Amino acid sequence: MSNIFRLLYRYRAFLLLLFYEFICFWLIFNYNSYQGTAYFNLSKEISGTFYSYSSTFKDYLSLKQVNDELAAENAFLKKRLAAMSDTSFMLNAVLNDSAQMKKYSFIAGKVLNNSVQRTNNFITINKGRKHGIRPGMGVISTSGVVGRVKGCSENFATVVSILHSEALVSSKIKRDNTLGSVKWEGGDPLYASLNFIPRHVDVVKGDSIVTTGFGSVYPEGVLVGIVDKIGFEGDKNFYSIRVKLATNFYKLAYVYVVDSKLKIEEETLELLLEDGTK
Amino acid sequence: MALNSYIRIAINFILVLLAQTLLFKGLVVFEFAFCFSYIAFILLLPLELPFFGVMTIALFLGLSVDIFYDTAAIHAASSVLVAFIRTHYARIITPRGGYDTSTELTLYQMGWQWISYYLLPLIFIHHLVVFLVEIYSFHNFYITFLKAISSSIYTYIIVLIYLKFTDTDGR
To answer: Inter-chain contact B80–A20, Cβ cutoff 8 Å?
Structure first.
């Protein structure tokens, strides 16, 4: 034992150097977004490759459930398609702005890695920059909103799921279009809270909360969750509403990345507006 | 060590920090060569100061400079590294006859040749680490290297001017 202490004492200068450098590099990667992202991207490539191998084993176990979900979705889409090929509907479609109709395209991706227990949860998917994924794109699933793309490498992308302490989803109550924002409060991955709904608005349990489509991240009308519990806090102007999230993050297997063709145009226009008012 | 020296070190610390952030931060030659003269403060501390104190001072000076440069701990990392190396390096380039105890590192005491042998490589290592960590890739390493060399020369000249200016011993 005393030999260890003697060794440590002999190299105390070098050990102190290592200790200080460790603190410095921790600070560097934490607070410099460029270095942090570069490291994050590299680690993403490595872990993405690893997870894509391990997921081939894990997927086998959830095959039946995923198949059932896909079959149900197929049936729903076929029904929708049949309804849309009704000629009177086509007439309306022609009159609508075709740019609006082609506004969103979807890139399907498989979930390689997911977490629900941490304070900040991320999802890794098997599509990356070469498939057209860019940071900031919204990600949805068949059941509802999943999150936003944080970073991407050539073959993989990380998605900040809404189970993240800083994630906010611009939402509205479907029935009367009241705007609010959904935030996950930590804890149970099945529930989140809907904020900024003023007290004079009519909200009942069972109301659907959908996305507004603002910011061209998610298409309008994607289900975020269902109102589960409505509470009042004495001095606040807003309800405290608990929403049961539409997406079951425990069983997330396939997602769609939303590519908004008009996002850049919308953002540049909004930027011009900001510059104009300065 | 006398309390007087501690106070002098503390005042020098603040002055070096002020000079770096107010003066040298903006004096960039051709947008290419930067001056990080605060490192001279670390390098010119008396050699017999315990390494723990020198490295801790280097850490805090580096962190303070980082606050003004908006880089997180990049200068701290390289300052600590240089503070560690300097004792070993000084031992390697011991002048004939060894060092006298409590020798001050000034031009008069040590001679400008020894000062140059001492300062140039250490300043270069410091600047190289700063630029490498900042750019965080070896892509275009040639440019980074050139930046480090030109900045080191620039810093070295500034430090030499400072030493000449404060060379009061015996005159």
So the answer is: yes
